[in-house]
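hey m, so remember when u said the tokens were messed up on ur end? i reran from scratch. heres the input so u can diff it against urs
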Amino acid sequence: MGAARVTPQQAQPAASVSGPRRASLLVTRLDPWSVMKTAFMLAVSFAIVLVVAIAVLWFVLQVTGVFDSIIRTVDELTGTGTTTVDVGSLISFGRVMGGALVIAGVEVILVSALATLFAFLYNLSVGITGGLQVTLSEDS
């Protein structure tokens, strides 16, 4: 079972064509299971990139002293003894990466579910629209 079912719309005979061969096809059905698997794998790869990018950004901000500057500014504004919020613990590596992992997990679930839903909706709309026309050709 493939990801898409295509039906030939019009084909040109190979003998009468001097240039590259072309074939026009209609995508009449998307397999929701294949769409879900593909969307899941793409979403997982994006989630990995997101988590690594946030980790690199956190390390860059830590090395450049941005977090220390933020903590000093908050302490100066609120007074050291009066604040009940520890800004340093809010922007700690563990808390930031935990938030990034939660966001990445939600992204994987939402992208997989929405792609599958859109595959179902596409299959329903093909009866009205006739499908998506794709033209394939050879490189000359």
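this time it looks ok to me. The two ends are 32 Å apart (CA to CA). if urs says something different then somethings off w ur setup not the seq
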